[in-house]
Every structure is written in structure tokens, then in C-alpha cells.
Amino acid sequence: MAGEEQLSYSQAIQSATGSLYRFPVIPVKGVPLMNHIANNWDSIWAFSPHPTDLLIATYPKAGTTWTQEIVDLLLHNGDTEICKRAPTPVRIPFLEIFSPPPIPSGLDLLEKMPPPRVIKTHLPFHLVPPGFWEKNCKVIYVARNAKDNLVSYYHFDRMNLTQPEPGPWEGYINKFMRGELAWGSWYDHVKGFWEEREKRNILYLFYEDMKENPRREVERIMQYLDLSLSDDVISRIVELTSFKSMKENPMANYTFIPKPVFDHSISPFMRKGEVGDWTNHFTPGQSKMFDEDYEKQMKDANIPFRTLI
Length: 309
What we know:
GO terms for molecular function: estrone sulfotransferase activity. Belongs to the sulfotransferase 1 family. Its main location: cytoplasm. Pfam families: Sulfotransfer_1. The chain has 309 residues and is an alpha/beta fold. The protein has a domain at 2-145 and 187-258: Rossmann fold (3-Layer(aba) Sandwich), CATH 3.40.50. The chain has 15 helices and 6 strands. The protein has helices at residues 2-16, 35-38, 41-45, 64-75, 88-91, 106-111, 131-134, 146-159, 169-178, 186-196, 207-212, 214-224, 231-240, 243-247, 284-297, and strands at residues 25-28, 31-34, 54-58, 118-121, 138-143, 202-206. The protein has a 4-stranded parallel β-sheet with strand order 4-3-5-6, sandwiched between helices. Helix 12 packs across helix 13. The radius of gyration is 18 Å and the shape is globular.
């Protein structure tokens, strides 16, 4: 079945690439979302999760795929073969994604999966379907420092030929600061989940902590999921979810997406995965401008971000 799922998903993407293009964004409750998401918003908002479903929520390019792989391995006791049963978006559907047929939408995939399911979203807190909060679903949120998140998103928008055209780096910084990118403002996103983390069933993680001490963070996720795995299994999961291992894993590195959609020759989906790569992109003037704006936008938020470790 795993091979069939992988093949059918890849074939669907291959056959649909002629109808894909850089989708424009349309605001939904003040948040710019790609038109295929905005046009199906009522269906997304009405999604009713099962109380046992787990939601992995992030701003784009904040460690989503990494967290998905950690969770999948934890839930399957570190079994690498089971976790290679299908590509990441088939194992853990992307809630709000709607694509041209025959690519299955996130809701289509979820409809066919029995709970408990693991679900991915990039939606900010106020756009997450209310059923997740009403049913007290577990939610893992991962936040990445703004400068590295911006750099990673910029390179992703260059290689993902369905995302809005990123334009030059200098202009992209301003779009990020103004919240004009797909899925909106990074600032609102990280603050929205932070403010609700103790009122809701949210485990709030930091990308930088995961890089600094991956074993500690894998164990935090394990405990949050009420699991108990042996030290050997945890060690294996830490190794299997290292950047090097995931970059070489065809079920997690998105090389199964064809070039007309993800052009890895422009930038690989898994590019560097580092903390502090922003220093290779920001000029001193850009960094100063960004820091001043950051102070204004985050002045009331006491979120302990680190731009270097």
C-alpha cells in the first residue's frame, strides 16, 4: 500500500503540473492566503477534527517537516520502514491546501484517514478551525527566529513555483515586515499561539532549541504525546531526524515533487537548516532597519527568540 500511495501521489502531481502557476493571494480575515485556499475557505473552516487528532502548526519554513518526521517516528516507535510508507504530505496531510485535480487536497486525504491523525497547518491562531480548540486537540507549535525564518521563506518562494513571486531580496524583507507574504505576518503568527499556549493544549517549541539540543526536544514532544520510548529508540529518532539524514530521505526531502512545482535547482527544499544563516544575507543597514521594526512589532511580546546559538 505504501508504494501505491507514493506512486499515486507523485503521478497526480506529474499530471497536474501543466495547470499549476504562481497563485495570487487573497485576504481571508485579514490574512493573505493563496487563492486556492481562500476560494475553499468555508470547507477548511468547517473541518471537524477528532479529539485524538494532533495538529502541527508553524509559520512557513519554521521547522514543519522536521517536526512532522519526529512525530511520525515517535508514534511508530522509531520504525524507519513504516515512516517511509509515503511522502510527508500523504502521511501528515496539509489541512488547508487545495490544488488542481488530480492532486488530493488536505481535506480529501484526511477524509480517508481514520483518527487519530496528525495534521499540518500554517494557519495563524485565529484562522485555525475552531473544532481543534473545542475538542481540546493537542497542538505542537514551532517558532523560528524572524531573520532565519525570513531567509528560509525567501529561498522557498524562489523554488516553489506555485507561491507568489518573491521578487528581489531587498523588497522581500519589506514584504515580510508588512505581513504581505502567503499566510501573513510572522509577528502575528508567533504571538497568536504564544498568547494562547497556556489556555489551550499547545506545546510551544523553538527551532533554535531543537537545533541546540535535539534529544531534549524530542523527549519533550514524546512526553507531550504521552509516549514512553527507550533511550535507544530516542537516539535513533534523533539521528534519523538530523538535517543530513532528512536531506537524504526521499520521503521527507520533497524531491518527489516535480520540477515545474518545486525547482530544486534554484534552491533545495532542505537548504541549510542552520541558526544564524541570516548573517549571510542581511547587510548591516538591512539588519538595523529590521531590528528597529522588530522592536516595534514585538514590544509587548516576551517571547525568548534567539538569532544565534
